[in-house]
Amino acid sequence: MMGHPGTALDAALVACGACELVSRAPLGYSDHRLACSRCGAPLHARKRDSVTRTWALVIAAIVFYFPANLLPITRIETLGSVEEDTILSGVIYFIQNGDWPVALVIFVASIFVPLLKLSILIALLISVQRKSGWWRKERTVLYRVTEKIGRWSMVDVFVVTVLVALVDLGALANVDAGPAAAYFSAVVVLTMFAAASFDSRLIWDCYADGERNR
Fold first, then answer.
1. How many distinct structural domains can be found in the chain?
2. What confidence score (pLDDT) does residue 65 get?
3. Would you give the DSSP letter of residue 153?
4. Whole-model pTM?
5. Residues 40 and 54 in one domain
6. Dihedral sign, CA of 117, 189, 32, 44?
7. Which of 85 and 56 is assigned the larger pLDDT?
8. 64 lies in which domain range?
9. Local structure of 115: helix, strand or coil
């Protein structure tokens, strides 16, 4: 069986996090002193404190996730009567009115995707900390998908923003954003930062270490 060909880290190759240029690091280089030859950004073999920072962001997102779904995201005032809706009650409303496509989009983008993204990030963090060698390619693909889909969760906030801007009929009808909108925006932003702070190269480090120890 052929041995492991080695990693970029073994070959002293470092990728720039800003412009993605791969540079060869000199012997005995220090992360504090190496800079990209193209854009001048600092080069690091691995993102510093990646796991710790990602855990902190994920935990913060989980804390905000509950008020984002339990508190009202819209407050509709019509002829003196006030109706408040959470994300889930909005989904139920569209289902009851036969608007399945709208309900599905809101449910997937605003409830399912943030929860899925948090679950994937937690699984990745645990697998890296346990130095798991299972399903490395699949975990890398999961990370890439998680990194791409996070921004689409903002669709619910976008809808609320449009409604607030368009529906203002004075005493007849008015739509205001509820407190959940701020919490939900925080969840989306925090999960995006968490995905960006996670270093997917850590998934492969345990594989390289295992090969070197054989």
1. 2
2. 92
3. G
4. 0.75
5. no
6. positive
7. 56
8. 50-212
9. helix
